[in-house]
Amino acid sequence: MASLIRSARLASNAIFQQRLPAKLLHTSAKSHYAAANSPPPAEGFMPGVANSKLIKHTQHDALRNPELASVANGETKKMNLFQSVNDAMAIALATDDTACVFGEDVAFGGVFRCTMGLSETFGRDRVFNTPLTEQGIAGFAIGMAAMGSTAIAEIQFADYIFPAFDQIVNEAAKYRYRSGGEFNVGGLTFRTPCGAVGHGGHYHSQHPEAYFAHTPGIKVVVPRSPIQAKGLLLASIRDRNPVVFMEPKILYRAAVEQVPVGDYELPLGKAEILQQGKDLTIVGWGAQLYVLENAIQLAQKRMPGLSVELIDLRSILPWDVETVCNSVNKTGRLLIAHEASKTQGFAAEIAATVQERCFLRLESPIERICSFDTPFPLIFEKFYVPDMIRCAEGIERAMKF
Amino acid sequence: MSSMDAHKKKERVRVHFPGAVDSHFSQVLEIREKMEPIDTFRVMDTDGTVLDPSLEPKVTEEFATKIYKDMLTLSIMDLILYEAQRQGRISFYMTNAGEEAYIGSAAALELEDEIFGQYREAGTLLYRGFTLDQFMNQCYSNDLDYGKGRQMPVHYGSKAHHFQTISSPLATQLPQASGAAYALKRSGKKNCVMCYFGEGAASEGDFHAALNIAATTSAPVIFFCRNNGFAISTPANEQYKGDGIASRGVGYGMHTIRVDGNDVWAVYKATQEARKIAVEKHKPVLIEAMTYRVGHHSTSDDSSAYRSKKEVEDWKRHDNPVVRMRKWLEAKGWWDESKENAHKTEMRKAVLKSFAAAEKRKKPAVSELFNDVYDKLTPQLLEQKKEIEELIKKYPDHYDTSNYKAE
């Protein structure tokens, strides 16, 4: 059933791309939505991202980041998020002969274009299609990695990762531990597009990081932008542990940055403070950060002088307790926002840890702004997701407690 | 040829659909229920007599007696460890009784062929030289267990023996075997992957995923199904309705062999041929070895609840893989009663010696609880490690570590 929808979507998406001249494909999402009277692409649009302060529009801006010291003197190139993911995989394939990229529809470039050109450059034995079987892809990837190879496996949508859940949770996560270190699957990375896009409904929208965050032995990473995606993906591929790398698919085209063309990695397990502040700490990851950025602006209009510390968690497992708790100990207030539903979402874990460590510093209850506890509802999406208004309301509640 | 015949012949047109390129159009509506059942290849009868002289194994005495001795050793180890579990000295065990002939498959492999097992394949490790001490250390979860005491008994694994560590979930090893085989093929090594599983596990989705993906990626893997008639208590006739597991191989476009799984030489020959196809043609092969599980599923199972003791005794008496091999060896003049007794006595002593030594050893250091989750301890794990260390100091009687190796 899912496959029907997928192939239909794939077909419409592919046609959509073929009809458009290449030049149009690289213009901003907003303009090409207006230009083409076509159905929206599977990854949707997120107009606010183009003007976000979190996006590095210039080379100077991009290379100021101390985490990019290794490529500080190098070139940058304008890339959107699918192009930077593609660039990371191209580097991984070029620098490691054992590396392979595979999954459903990967050979022709992938339904989100992340693997475009890779099979032509590196050969069909290294970049290839698999049958439509997520548990098979996961098991296959584990087997490759167990033999010391680097396996970069794509699960076409995070909504379809669940047939692979057993392989990821019972096999990949425990491979090193159960063998006492005789074997490991450190060379294993699962890439999977996730998150809301405006029209994805139940099965093209989910953000299932919390399921995996309950699994010792794997790492879970969510990037927010092209620069971050490239560096975090290369780190995930080379990290000696299996990683589930969730790509917010709404950012594939919407987020465009000057991305260093060189080979660089960004640290796993390390959050990044995007904006320093003293009154309130806000933690998010992936596309939610752009919603939070807008919510902060709105709240600052309502509460002039409000100073917010915005943190991109980046790694969900293991997560950077120290950076978050240091911030909350400074501000005394915390808001966490994520796209996944609230009950047992990862915000719950953060809130529990922060109350353990910052109890005497807290000046208001920890706010969790999340999607509601229903399945992802197609036509009600704007009422369901933690949008700018709900986040701004949460900020106000925290500040006025 | 009449013009009518020519007309009919002309009508035999290949379909143009991409999904079944070898099919022809037909005006006969065919509702197919069955294919011809696949034959079961055998070399010896139940008395160990080679049925077709051309199939007489061309092997040395040393090679043949090694296989037999390992079959015998496996039975002796099983008997002792089964009893040890009954006495509460180890927590769990699984025997191989009735299926010992699968050692013939191990004998047809090269040492660097990677094995992905299910759990009832200790004999392949034995064949590769995993020592009795190593078996016992694992079953006792002591400080020398490669798995560092983290898994139940019989979850063996050894990098040196190219035997990936066993995990309890069924059939998960199958798609892994496909991927491992693909990696081997890319490495250019002239090796294959050997993947064992039972007919029950073949009902899991992972079985389908694995065979299909192995076929489409041309992975050099042998899928070896031990069809022993039972998945715990569920008999094969309640497990599937088709012609065993072998019939499915053809459906995946895969070379397929069905073999008498109680006939060491048939298993050996089938695996040899399968290995050639896997290594030389880079293609997967499915082998279905028909056998009968004489033992209980595990020490947690009493099979008399679902099958008669007489049925089991009949199998032991009439089609015993160990006896078949022994008779073959005796006919060759390579084995006799005195050799049998001498090997049994020697192995019983050796097993008991290893057993006692393993039982005496301490468990791995408590810090091993936290190692190997990741390549390095995370900040969270470091904190949790500190937590238990402090509690151990505070409550030394409750958290008695005297039986664990010192840090």
Automatic annotation (TrEMBL), chain A:
Gene Ontology biological process: branched-chain amino acid catabolic process; generation of precursor metabolites and energy; response to nutrient
Cleavable signal peptide: none
Residue span, Transketolase-like pyrimidine-binding domain: 79-254
Record's catalysed reaction(s): N(6)-[(R)-lipoyl]-L-lysyl-[protein] + 3-methyl-2-oxobutanoate + H(+) = N(6)-[(R)-S(8)-2-methylpropanoyldihydrolipoyl]-L-lysyl-[protein] + CO2
Alphabetized UniProt keyword annotations: Oxidoreductase
CDD domains named among the record's database cross-references: TPP_PYR_E1-PDHc-beta_like
GO MF terms held by the record: branched-chain 2-oxo acid dehydrogenase activity
EC number: 1.2.4.4
Keyword RNA-binding: no
Oxidoreductase recorded as keyword: yes
Cofactors named for this entry: thiamine diphosphate
Taxonomic superkingdom: Eukaryota
InterPro entries: THDP-binding, Transketo_C/PFOR_II, Transketolase-like_Pyr-bd, Transketolase_C
PANTHER family registered for this protein in UniProt: 2-OXOISOVALERATE DEHYDROGENASE SUBUNIT BETA, MITOCHONDRIAL (PTHR42980:SF1), 2-OXOISOVALERATE DEHYDROGENASE SUBUNIT BETA-RELATED (PTHR42980)
Name the record gives this protein: 3-methyl-2-oxobutanoate dehydrogenase (2-methylpropanoyl-transferring)
Species: Actinomortierella ambigua
Organism phylogeny: Eukaryota, Fungi, Fungi incertae sedis, Mucoromycota, Mortierellomycotina
TrEMBL record, chain B:
CDD domains: TPP_E1_PDC_ADC_BCADC
GO biological process: branched-chain amino acid catabolic process
Catalytic activity, as annotated: N(6)-[(R)-lipoyl]-L-lysyl-[protein] + 3-methyl-2-oxobutanoate + H(+) = N(6)-[(R)-S(8)-2-methylpropanoyldihydrolipoyl]-L-lysyl-[protein] + CO2
SUPFAM superfamilies: Thiamin diphosphate-binding fold (THDP-binding)
Chain ranges of the Dehydrogenase E1 component domain: 69-366
Annotated EC: 1.2.4.4
Keyword hit for Calcium: no
Assigned keywords, A-Z: Metal-binding, Mitochondrion, Oxidoreductase, Potassium, Thiamine pyrophosphate, Transit peptide
Protein localization: Mitochondrion matrix
Molecular function in Gene Ontology: branched-chain 2-oxo acid dehydrogenase activity; metal ion binding
Reported cofactor(s): thiamine diphosphate
A UniProt-annotated Pfam family: E1_dh
GO annotations of cellular component type: mitochondrial matrix
Function recorded in the entry: The branched-chain alpha-keto dehydrogenase complex catalyzes the overall conversion of alpha-keto acids to acyl-CoA and CO(2). It contains multiple copies of three enzymatic components: branched-chain alpha-keto acid decarboxylase (E1), lipoamide acyltransferase (E2) and lipoamide dehydrogenase (E3).
Family to which the UniProt record says this protein belongs: Belongs to the BCKDHA family.
Protein name: 2-oxoisovalerate dehydrogenase subunit alpha
Native organism: Actinomortierella ambigua
